[in-house]
TrEMBL record:
Transmembrane segments: none annotated. Residues 178-367 form the Nitroreductase domain. It comes from the Bacteria. Coiled coil: none annotated. Pfam families: Nitroreductase. It comes from Duganella aceris. This is Peptide maturation dehydrogenase. The lineage of its organism: Bacteria, Pseudomonadati, Pseudomonadota, Betaproteobacteria, Burkholderiales. InterPro entries: Bacteriocin_Proc_Enz (IPR052544), Nitroreductase (IPR029479), Nitroreductase-like (IPR000415), SagB-rel_DH_2 (IPR030965), SagB-type_dehydrogenase (IPR020051).
Amino acid sequence: MKIRRCSVLYIESREALAIDWSALFAGTSTLAASTEWIALVPHLDREIGIDATELTVLGAISQTVWSERDACEQRLDAPAIARLLAKGLLIGDDAEHAAVRERDEVLRAAHWRPMAALVHTFSRWTDVRSETGMEAPTFQELLDTYGEPPPPTLELGAPGSGVKLPAPASGLLDETMRKRYTGRNFDLQATLPLAVAARLLQRTFGAQQVRRIGDSATILKKTSPSGGGLHPVEAFVLVQRIAGLTPGLYHYHPIEHELRPLRAMDAPEAAATALQMVADQQWLADAPMQVVLVGRAERTFWKYRNHHKAYRALALDAGHLSQTFYLLAAEAGMPAFITAAINDVEIEQMLGLDHLRHAVIAVCGCGPASGARDMAELRYGETGTI
């Protein structure tokens, strides 16, 4: 049997403090510190505790080159090797370890930058709800708790040295941009017209042009920029109240301009799904349409293999798309929203996604406003506190 270390592995030292009662009674230092080693491994999607012997073994076995287990056991601690194989930090080439090896090979094949894979894996939420930590403090509550925030802008250069610029000329986008705001008071009785939903999806996520490169490769031209022209962000739509559509989950096909059903729901289930996706942010879950932005890591990293900036470009792509979505919603007379405070793991399960191949980045949505102001909204031209 041959073994090697898993492809992406980070070791974090965590210090635990406890009261040293013997020291306390002796009148000396009362705090005792102990260090534990935690392995962070994206292919297993969890943290794993290891001891000092296992740490030494991990540092002595290659993550690339396969080594004979017997030879490793002769020069290293054999019981520690067995424990690390059981934990999935060492990979075996036999049938017993096939499941863990497959997950590690998926991660290798995706060409993640190791630090990006770590950040992506361990920044995902699961089961964050109002009763388990999701909060929505008002700005005043933040001021009361943390005091004044840093100033809204940097003040650089000597006073009076600035070059005054001419007033901006009026443009075609001015009215739409000024109508753009994040909605938090959606009309629960309103239905989104199918034609409006279709325009939002096509003009934001749809291919405006399809180009053939080489014998079979295809690239898309969209209304937003994309790192490397790859357009790796897919749109999955949760329909709650769109005229003519059954509530449920759909995938938007950007070339065919169609919604492909993934799972039909009744209205209560769709509402509950929306609430779970956005971690109990009811003011966002009320929108008649939510769109999950999912980055295809395998497409981005096909070009940017093990690249320092690739994961950042993937997040920027989602940001570009969300702003286009906002402006189209404003053009249609509706507010929109985007949030990264989402239950990534549950969304992956709903859509059948693998976090090593797909990055659930954010959820956006839109719909008619209710006219109420139960939740604060920052609208152009309005004054007052929030």
